[in-house]
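Researcher: Please predict.
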Amino acid sequence: MSTRAGFVALIGEPNAGKSTLLNRMVGAKVSIVTHKVQTTRARIRGVAMEGQAQIVFVDTPGLFRPRRRLDRAMVAAAWGGAADADIIVLLIEAQRGVTEGVERILEGLADVGEGRRVALAINKIDRVQSEVLLSLTKDLNERYPFAQTFMISAEKGHGVDALRGWLAADLPEGPWLYPEDQIADLPMRMIAAEMTREKLTLRLHQELPYQLTVETENWEERKDGSAKIDQLIYVVRDGHKGIVLGHKGETIKAVSRASREELETFLGRKVHLFLQVKVRPNWLDEAERYSEMGLEFKDGNG
């Protein structure tokens, strides 16, 4: 039986459930999932095996109206991921329906979707009545010629197998792109940084999470099989540093503990994690920070 392989881009508004769907498809946590929007910055690829097919998912940042340089880089990465894919899956949150943001994405698909198969996945179907779902499905299919429509709950797993099966059958024939046991092509350093950033996002509120970034500065393999990981948390001002540290260092300790525990589960071995907070007022405008996140840095307003 011949093998199949290809890239599938998951696109949609922030918080539509793309990261949850990716993690469900792959069967491991490779993309951070939080209740806050715009948490996925880099194009994280997760690899799922389905029979003789290898599905390489490109989990793009949520598509939204960009305001800052980082926003513009994230939106460019999202459309870039869609343009590079063999198949595009547009994820719509059932409760939200056709928002202004969805309308903008449908307009963008008219350019990017040409010549490739685009599937529609309506997510969180357990939260709306069936009549609403039918009406939404009809409306969206009248607006764009989707190859297939799927009703899913990424969180609970409903309909996900059907979507994965269809994707596997629809990918081009060819050799696998990654070793069979590899689930993500992001360096472990970046996955580790994303895990810590997720924990910070969950602990902190308002705007601060989007004004900080985490980098894995050092990764040392020890003789006893454990790993020593040093990470830097960059914030833009002194006041933010105090918020990240928390009263008597309680916040940073809780974040470090939660991140270390998740890393140990993910790696299957002991981890020694050391976090340090540094103020870098201009990190949002530093090209190096963008390349660390797998994003393209553009000068000026481009």
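Model: The chain is about 35% helix and 25% strand.
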